[in-house]
Amino acid sequence: xxxxxxxxxxxxxxxxxxxxxxxxxxxxxxxxxxxxxxxxxxxxxxxxxxxxxxxxxxxxxxxxxxxxxxxxxxxxxxxxxxxxxxxxxxxxxxxxxxxxxxxxxxxxxxxxxxxxxxxxxxxxxxxxxxxxxxxxxxxxxxxxxxxxxxxxxxxxxxxxxxxxxxxxxxxxxxxxxxxxxxxxxxxxxxxxxxxxxxxxxxxxxxxxxxxxxxxxxxxxxxxxxxxxxxxxxxxxxxxxxxxxxxxxxxxxxxxxxxxxxxxxxxxxxxxxxxxxxxxxxxxxxxxxxxxxxxxxxxxxxxxxxxxxxxxxxxxxxxxxxxxxxxx
Length: 327
Prior knowledge:
Blueprint: E1 10-14, H1 22-30, H2 33-38, E2 40-44, H3 47-57, E3 68-71, H4 87-105, E4 111-114, H5 119-124, H6 132-139, E5 147-152, E6 155-159, H7 169-172, H8 175-191, E7 199-202, H9 217-231, E8 237-240, H10 245-250, E9 256-259, H11 262-273, E10 278-282, E11 288-291, H12 308-326
Parallel strand pairs: 1-2, 1-4, 2-3, 4-11, 6-9, 7-8, 7-9
Antiparallel strand pairs: 5-6, 5-10, 10-11
């Protein structure tokens, strides 16, 4: 890896799924003049996928420089069929993420940023966990609370439960889980440089449960969870009805929102800005970021993939990496 400037974070950057739009996003990102000034980068990629992507978006093929190191470039000559979720690209995704993670844990990078993945390909490639969040936790031997955080410009969202059937959500909501979600979101804000974020918490039932008439989760679980987090030094407000809490954020009253389940927060944030959102693998021992959108198999090779979310994910990785450097 190239010698890093002490004033810049070091980012391990992977192309994500070589069969998706990830390589197109990466070559566009690395072509931006500001990237080399912002960070020292180690690119983990596949030559064929990168060259195909560069041709599709009319961007230069990345070349090693004083700020860019290309990891295992010449040794990786495999080709992956575009827009196909298969065993081979699943293996590549997992191998590249393992390498990027190792760079951070070995102290050779300060944060990991990866382009979009395909969970189906990852399962074919050997992932047995429900999602990459739990896969990363296992890889890092981390057994503490963790969860995906989604960032849309200045609005950050976390959630108590994630990838599970909606019918199971109520049965797994706990006071401790609500408190952990508040703590995790607040800590992520603090790592990124915002020491006192204003956190709001969603209710679970219609009309916030209507004082127990439509369900008691707000009374029995969510309110005590908010109180538990506050006792630990993590204040938040709520619960608020889920159909109005995002209006508070839109109007500038909240910096972050904790939702109770996946789509409760995701629908709102994606409506507010699908092409700009970022996901943080929250709670883990190292900073990991990625665009909040998927691999977009339907537009691979068309040269129309937008890089805004990739830029935002990279910038957030830099900010979180800088925080590690300071500490």
